[in-house]
Design brief:
Layout (H helix, E strand, L loop, with lengths): L9 E7 L6 H8 L5 E6 L6 H7 L3 E4 L5 H11 L6 E4 L4 E3 L1 H10 L7 E12 L2 E3 L7 E8 L3 E3 L8 E3 L3 E4 L4 E4 L4 H24 L13 H12 L8 H13 L6 H31 L4 H12 L5
Parallel strand pairs: 1-2, 1-4, 2-3, 6-11, 6-12
Antiparallel strand pairs: 4-8, 5-12, 6-7, 6-8, 9-10
Length: about 300
């Protein structure tokens, strides 16, 4: 999409698969700030592509393996010709104050600034989840084209800038999925599978040293370190229960009301326990394999994902 009178030298990339209920909202939130919007679709079977095209975006399609590989493909093959690139998920929204800050900042930044982080808030059951360590989640989402790449991970992938320094921009940036609890739990079941892959990959060194790199955001680096060096080494029940109690009591998650109770139990305990349970189930299977190649093949069979 080429917006009339572009206000920033910016391309926004949005990955989609059956996101008809979100895609127009995401596009509208960045229409006034982006010179180009590229939608990379994984062969949706709903109206996603038609809606994105009707909104004037450039739509390309590519077979999906995981989010990291898909987004890196978009960076390599999406024909990005602007000075800056932004990642936006289809269920995310850039609010007007952050949009204005982006437009004002990009032309003025010195060349040494190559990355920009946003503070993302999560909207669940219509409520902003402010507590339990869920805000702010500082993510690098905007970078000088050519300086950023995506960590090749099955879960929790971040954009990494390879030179320069990053700054933070204030303003509204919301993760606001409109799906119901059935959608939420189904999505997190898929996330749990991919996160279990990451835990087992580190345990058995399945993917080499690339999986050990750290993201550009300082907050994300600290969380990754704590998760891999401490949390993932705890007994099956200790990690999820301790994490939930820390979020809900120490970090005041109880102040988020009834939606917060549901969210923190599902995302802070149930999801984390599901990841641990999948790791425990599949670890026994991989321990019987004699080689790394055999473990990768077996994990692909167990998960149904093209890990090799």
């Amino acid at each position: 999409m080429s917006a009339p009178g572009p206000t920033a030298d910016l391309t926004v990339v949005i990955l989609t698969y059956n996101k008809a209920h979100h895609i127009v909202r995401a596009i509208e939130s960045v229409r006034g700030i982006a010179r180009t919007i590229v939608v990379v679709d994984s062969f949706s079977t709903d109206a996603t592509v038609a809606l994105a095209q009707a909104a004037g975006t450039r739509v390309v399609q590519h077979a999906f393996v995981n989010h990291a590989a898909q987004f890196q493909w978009a960076l390599d093959h999406g024909g990005i010709a602007t000075g800056w690139t932004m990642r936006l998920d289809a269920d995310e929204v850039i609010e007007p104050d952050l949009a204005a800050a982006i437009v004002a900042a990009l032309p003025t930044l010195p060349g040494e600034v190559t990355g920009i982080t946003f503070d993302r808030k999560h909207i669940f059951m219509g409520r902003w989840i402010r507590h339990g360590g869920r805000y702010p989640l500082r993510l690098l989402r905007l970078w000088r084209t050519g300086t950023g790449r995506v960590e090749q991970r099955w879960m929790d992938e971040h954009v990494v800038v390879e030179r320069g320094r990053t700054i933070a921009l204030a303003g509204g940036f919301a993760d606001w999925n409109l799906g119901d609890l059935g959608f939420f739990t189904a999505k997190h079941n898929g996330y749990a599978t991919r996160e279990a892959i990451e835990v087992l990959a580190a345990r058995y060194d399945l993917f080499g040293t690339a999986a050990a790199e750290l993201p550009s955001s300082g907050q994300a680096r600290r969380k990754r370190w704590l998760k891999t060096r401490v949390y993932d080494r705890l007994p099956l029940w200790v990690g999820p229960l301790g994490y939930f109690l820390y979020r809900y009591v120490v970090q005041l998650g109880f102040l988020d009301g009834r939606p917060g109770l549901i969210y923190h139990v599902l995302q802070g305990f149930w999801y984390r326990f599901l990841v641990a349970a999948k790791v425990a189930e599949w670890d026994g299977e991989l321990a019987c394999c004699g080689t790394r190649e055999a473990r990768i093949a077996r994990l692909a069979e167990l998960t149904g994902l093209p890990i090799a």
